[in-house]
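Fig. S4 source data, part A: sequence.
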Amino acid sequence: LEHGSWNLSCVNAGLGFPALVQEFFTSYLVEQRAVSSGTVSAYRDAFTLLFDYAERSLGKVPTKLTLADIDPDLIVGFLNELETVRGNCIRTRNARLAAIRSFLQFASRRDVSQLNAVAKALAVPMKRFERPMLEFLTREQMVAVLALPGTTWLAERDRLLLHLLYNTGARVSEMIGTRVESVVTGEGACVHLLGKGRKHRSVPLWPATAKLVRAWLTRNTQLVATSPLLPTRKGTFMTRENASQRLTLAVKYASTVHPELLTMRVTPHTLRHTTAM
């Protein structure tokens, strides 16, 4: 290498930890991998927490960190803090570790002098956990939840939300992000969903659900093609928290017929499991 056209010092010239992190987010994730904005945000949050922990543990601000500082001891200590101090579940712990691993794999191709250190850091394993039994509603319970009373605009929107979640088995983020133009109400009624990993799929609508959609669009003539199908009163997209609150209200009404619902934790994802079952 000494007699060749390049050497190891040239490979690493001008390459520092801050530059690696910046290239990882601005070039690798966005331009090369073309990951979703949600993934970028999740990775950003993971690194924000990691840098905060590193500053407290090592006494170094992020701009002074090196790739060698991201060693197994730092990573394990960070993951343990997520669980014991922040109260994160094992799934979240593993998701944070996945973000760190992705960066390390990227960095190992940019700074070959740290291959051994990166290999040791990558050896930190994901934590295993027992997967709980999937909770779902019986048909009778689900019918009671769908029978949310009321004739107001809000009640009609909430009923449509619940019917669409149950009909499609969609994630709540997929459903509240659906626009008017994504729904076909005529022959071959269906809804086009943009799911995890930016994957598109079309889900057929049951006749009863399609009828509700048609009635909703007839009542809300101000909605244009690009409008949220299930808007807030201000015309914006609903949030996940908002959708969960509306489901909780429907479950409360349904509990008058099925009291056992009050002992269950019913979330939008529970409806997804119910559809599958």
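Fig. S4 source data, part B ends here. Residues 1-14 have pLDDT under 50 and may be disordered.
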